[in-house]
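Comment thread on ticket #2218

A.B. wrote:
> Attaching the input chain for the structure job we discussed in standup.
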Amino acid sequence: MNAREEILGRIVDRPGDAVVTKDFSSFVAADLWVQFESQLVALGGRMIDAGELGDLSRGVVFAEAETGFSSSVDLVWDAEIGISVGSFAIAETGSVVVDSSPGRHRLSTLLPKVSVILVDEDQIVGSLAEGFARMPSRNAVIVSGTSRTADIEGVLVRGVHGPGELLVHRRQK
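C.D. wrote:
> Ran it. Output below, let me know if you need it in another format.
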């Protein structure tokens, strides 16, 4: 028996062991947004209101057409702020799913120093499992907080491999 087989042999299904997950099915959307914001903040992101969104949109911005904002640069590579539309938010993890449908540029969530993602208030699910069930069939990314990495001594650095700031705006209908 090699080391891999030995390790895999130790994994046993134990009928009495249950994975503990939080049941979000009875939550209303407002409660889900409270949970979402709590998790988002824990991951280094934050929610912004319409006023702050308006202020940010006057910066060096690359905005997707669906956002309703104008880009001040032609290429996402030149932007300091990327404004994107999220498909939906996941309350349990504080994550936003962004797909690559026509008119959407996932790079605007990955390249600029600041990533702003707009999510319609009714586009939220409670759990990661619900999110996977709702995942689009095309390319999508799950954005969970700011870009972060740590060195061997455990010093956390944000923004090395992507945005150092993640802002989410809940669009009212």
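A.B. wrote:
> Thanks. Noting for the ticket: The chain has a mean pLDDT of 84.
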